[in-house]
Amino acid sequence: MNTLERGIFPFGLGRVYDDSVSKLADSVVQQLEMAVAVGLLGEGQKLPSEAELAGELGVSTVTLRQALTILRDRGLIETRRGRGGGSYVQDSQAASLRRAEAQLRSKSTEELRDLGDLAAAALGAAARLAAQRAVAEDCDRLRALARDFADATEPDTRRRADSRFHIELGVVAQSPHLTTLIVQAQGQLAPMLWAPGTPDSRESAREHERIAEAISGQDGSVAQQHAVEHCEREARVLIQRHLALASA
């Protein structure tokens, strides 16, 4: 069975391939921020040891420590000493809301529409391929992830469940490239969509269920259609919120 549970990053998505040494720490920061944004790293989760995490990202421990210092300064991780010490994800609702509003204000309607187009193209293609390649266990996993999202009541849980459903479509499609694109899109969209105080998630939950059922029924064209419509609707929601913030 295909699954996301392969370290922090599926398919080695976290590895940094930047040949400019001066940019390596910033690249690591971006990768770890993305991992938090899409729920691959959750509130209160302990990071792997520095040696393990540096190995997974493909950087030196010196570079990793520089990145962790930046993340501590931004309040995204905290370091605890003593027994059970280490670096832990710290992503409070207040901080999440401030970041989400800042991101939404900084985007133009054209950028939000373009992000929606990227998400729709990647998720639609993944849904179509998933319908062709999924086995029974994959379908069960997608349904379970759809239920996790529908049952989520807290913003952080909802954001993580939404991202995991989207990313799992790429995994079930057996396409590392599509999975990478989905992670990149979700890393930008999910924090803005599911910040504290955002509207309920019932429509997205119904859309997830329709996508999962189309994949289970091996109907690639319908799965793709539902996935594209899902992303397009969510992009419209973000554009409306952006315009509301701009006029406030």
Determine Rg (CA atoms, Å).
18 Å
How helical, in percent, are the residues? Answer: 55-70%
Question: What is the overall pLDDT average?
Answer: 86
Fourth CATH level, the homologous superfamily of the largest domain: GntR ligand-binding domain-like
CATH architecture of the largest domain: Up-down Bundle
Largest β-sheet summary: 2 strands, antiparallel
What percentage of amino acids are in beta strands? Answer: under 5%
CATH topology of the largest domain: Four Helix Bundle (Hemerythrin (Met), subunit A)
If you had to describe this structure to a student in words, what would you say it looks like?
It is a single chain. The chain has 248 residues and is mainly α. The chain folds into two domains: 10-91, Winged helix-like DNA-binding domain superfamily/Winged helix DNA-binding domain (Arc Repressor Mutant, subunit A, Orthogonal Bundle), CATH 1.10.10; 95-247, Four Helix Bundle (Hemerythrin (Met), subunit A). Helix content is 69%, strand content 3%. It contains ten helices and two strands. The protein has helices at residues 21-37, 50-57, 61-73, 93-106, 109-133, 136-151, 155-172, 176-193, 202-216, 220-247, and strands spanning 77-80, 86-89. A two-stranded antiparallel sheet has the order 1-2. A hairpin with a 5-residue loop joins strand 1 and strand 2 (86-89). Helix 1 crosses helix 8 (176-193), helix 2 packs across helix 3 (61-73) and helix 5 (109-133) packs across helix 7. The longest helix is centred in the last third of the chain and has 28 residues, at 220-247. Mean pLDDT is 86; it is low at 1-6.
